[in-house]
Amino acid sequence: MDYPTLQGKLIMPEYGRNIQQMISHALTIEDREERTRCVKTVINIMGNMFPYLRDVNDFKHKLWDHVAIMSDFKLDIDFPYEIVREENLYTRPESLTYKNSRIRYQHYGRTLEEMIEKVAEYEEGDEKTELIRLIANQMKKCFLTWNKEVVDDKKIFDDLRELSKGKLDIPEDFLKLVESRDVLYTRKNKSNQMKRK
Fold it and tell me: What contacts 140, CB < 8 A, 6 or more positions away?
């Protein structure tokens, strides 16, 4: 009896050893047309293994790429698609550059800080006031998410003033923020519903 571990490593284990053996067999067929027909049959079998992916764009193209990979790019047939090249298979993507700037308040996050900087540049008016109200409410929600305690609106407005470098100086009585208990109550109800499921 042949143990699977003694039969060599599978190139793409998700297809199994039988598909790998079919592709290896196709490599031994001398007639090009017969070899192409054999590979098309293998492609159909591979497609039947994952029927839920048939609606995915380029599903057939991916199957042909996988056949080329499993044959170690040695199959000499007319591929219906341009297949992936061996040298492009293991190329690393370009590194992403990350901002290394310091976040003043971790619980607010960088995105909220950037939003505050943008709103500080707006001209005075209803739109700017509404954006400030939305940002301040979001700041309060973020604060309560991380600190789990009641927060005074004065603290939120002080932080908003500091993060905008004094450009957004809002009197505390000018805007009424969402109540802390409402945020905490909503969050508590959501977690209770999740526990019930």
Answer: 151, 153, 156, 177, 178, 180, 183
Helix axis angle, 59-70 to 16-28, nearest 10°: 70
As a whole number of angstroms, the distance between CA 149 and CA 34 comes to 73
Q: 47 CB contacts (<8 Å, ≥6 apart)?
A: 54, 59, 60, 63
Secondary-structure breakdown of the chain: helix, strand, coil percentages, each rounded to the nearest 5: 60, 0, 40
**What would the pLDDT profile of 47-86 be if each residue is shown by its tens digit?**
999 888 888 888 989 999 999 999 999 998 988 888 888 8
Tokens in use for 58? Answer: 């380029």
Sign of CA dihedral 70, 72, 77, 81: positive
DSSP, res 88: H
Tokens of 114: 């950037």
Distance CA 43, CA 60 (A): 8
The pTM of this model reads: 0.49
84 and 68 in contact (C-beta within 8 Å)? yes
CB 26 within 8 A of CB 71: yes
The 10s digit of each residue's pLDDT in 119-146 is 988 888 888 888 888 898 888 888 888 8
Domain positions in the chain: 4-89, 109-182
Compute how many other C-beta atoms are within 10 angstroms of the C-beta atom of residue 135: 21
The rounded distance, in Å, linking the Cα atoms of 10 and 61 is 21
